[in-house]
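Help needed: design a sequence for this.
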């Protein structure tokens, strides 16, 4: 699998604090290897639009689509609690 950042996801990533960027890098590497990696806690977020949610940290999430062999990263943002 490979990653494809949308412009928004790229801008979101750039806006993350450096320590969260490092954790995002780690979690995205796990995503590429295994969608079911335990710390990702990946799940369908919006069944109708095919959007998935994965955990970066307890407070940050990544939202993505799965298209063939590519994860299309939509956004990375604080988790709305």
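Sure. Designed sequence:
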């Amino acid at each position: 699998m490979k990653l494809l950042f949308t412009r928004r996801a790229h801008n979101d990533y750039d806006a993350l604090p450096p320590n969260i960027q490092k954790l995002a890098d780690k979690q995205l590497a796990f995503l590429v290897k295994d969608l079911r990696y335990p710390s990702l806690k990946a799940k369908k977020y919006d069944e109708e639009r095919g959007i998935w949610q994965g955990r970066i940290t307890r407070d940050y999430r990544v939202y993505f689509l799965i298209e063939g062999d590519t994860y299309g990263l939509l956004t990375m943002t604080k988790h709305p609690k």
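Helices lie at 7-15, 18-33.
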